[in-house]
Design brief:
By secondary structure, the protein is an alpha+beta fold. It contains 10 helices and 13 strands. About 2% of the residues have low confidence.
Amino acid sequence: MKVGKISESVLKRSVLKQIKVNKDSKMLSGASVGADCAIFSFSGAGFSNIMTCVQEAAVAGKADMERILHKTANGVACAGAVPIAAMISLMLPESMEEAKLQELMCEARRVCDKIGMALAGGQTNVWADILKPHVSVTVLGTVAGEKTILPGRAKPGQDIVISKWIALEGTAMIAKTLGEQMTARYPLYFIEEAASFGKYISVLPEAQIAADKGVSAMHDVSEGGIFRALWEIAESAGTGLNVDLKKIPIRQETVEVCEFFQISPYELLSGGSLIMVADDGEGLTEALLEAGIPAAVVGKLTAGNDRVIVNEEETRFLDRPRTDEIYKVEALWK
């Protein structure tokens, strides 16, 4: 199989096929295309619904730990929930020193405090057959039953809203690791600004506003970029879509970084951006802007299966998701 996210067909055939809602269980919804968390109802026992989201990644340092914690919390927030606790499982190589472990866990503590969730526990093991540290993060969140955003509720005619800018995560990673290669063309302050885009990775503020506004669906934009996320949210809803490429928000730093390394910003890691589907996209955008969060209406969900991207006079159909562009440049920093 190819490096990165597995293809949608493999995901459906070999993974999601095994995830089923048991009528006798408390599970309202399992993970699906475009939805990373499972939802459990405990309202009968006097509790709110509980969400869980699990993510895993290799962690070379503090930046990776911060990214994976935010990504997992973002997944819970997309169901309308507030993250309340994180569990961390670390798999370490024999060569790793305790000081490095301590550094990673201190960063985990800092990020959890920033998000406002407890670092509740986990497990740490050393393995002889791995070369670098790996972490698995499970985040729990809670939400009142009536505010739960279940997959598949979006419908044709609703507006598609995108928060902040696309490809923030990928831009930051590339500028941090390969910025020196860009100094011949761009000033240092420009590269440093691009490298700082990781500060935008949390989507919790906009997700909370969107949930309060009664959106039908949310999807954090991550691996595969905005094109994958748009495909997945339409796939989850069973709809088509029509999106104006020119309306998709993107920073000039991202445009320059992607042009320099000859990659597409529309298929690049985009942690920090959130897709929201709502009846009144303009009203939602105004509410986000009032809270200091950039946002834009970029199109609508449509009846049928056509997923269309319009770029001025040119119209193209959105392809099935492909491997993230980050892997085209990743070899340059290994």
